[in-house]
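pinging the channel bc i need a second pair of eyes. not urgent but kinda urgent?? the chain im working w is below, pasted from the shared doc
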Amino acid sequence: MNYRSVVVEDTSCEATELFMVRVVLTADDAQTVEDEARYLSGYSIITTTPLQVCIEGWVAPEHTPDGRPGALLLFNAPCPLGMERFRKAVAERLYILPHLPTCGLFDGWRCEPVLDSVDLSRAIGRWGDGYEVRERVYRRDVMRLPIMSGDMLVECSLRVGKGLDAVIEVFGRDNAACLIGARTATARLVGEATGVGVFNYPLGGISGAKVGGRVYTHEGVSINEPYCPTLRGKATDSCIPPGANAVIEYPMTGLTEEELYAGLSLAIQGFGDTPGIVGITAPRFGGQWGDQHLSLRRALELIQGPPAGSAA
């Protein structure tokens, strides 16, 4: 399969179910929203933390609860880690919220079913040291906290549902092509997709890993040697195609499978439109990461349509 001159392997992403919370973060201006969204979503990959935080996109003031510029963030973690651990991790991450000038936080979940909720009223409410007020504003139950930039509004409860993740591996002639492609893909997803979150904004891409280790068998993750260019000729299962000298992994999370497919197709376009990108595939973990599969063929067909002669 091809998108433009880029070879897209006819394979599938391993996807895992995620517990997920979706929030609307607001602030006085768009730049502050972006700064604070990047702060809250930093250091957020399950390799070393109990929580991942992805940026979905930006929200115009007319579409936020308090009429200010906003950002959508997806807090998530693989379901096997457990609901209680996830709820605790969300509450602990958001405990830093009152440090962020002018911001507010509201529940943004929109899917069924709702599985549980994260109570923010106790932990964050105690920041008020007796000056906090619980009230009904914008048809929501919120805590009003006096902070240095004025009153901060934090919704008392965040709904928890389920989402999915997906990941592709992208081969480039050099690192520059991979980095430019990742930023291009991220701009497309954040600007055009709904219900899809990106990691490591604004780059989006990461250097990926595999589950477990071959030599260090007790490690949770280790290098994914088939995708390490300097191991071509050393690793017996190298996946680096001719002409490629660099690889970048591009993960994403989504509220629904349909939205995740739309995100994959935008990512393929973003990378495929970048000079120097030579191939796109998906990593294989033998079912260790997830038992659901998202077809790159289907993602490509969202761009190009089904092949001529196929059934409608």
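so Residues 169 and 249 are 5 Å apart (CA to CA). and The chain has a mean pLDDT of 94. — does that match what u expected or am i reading it wrong
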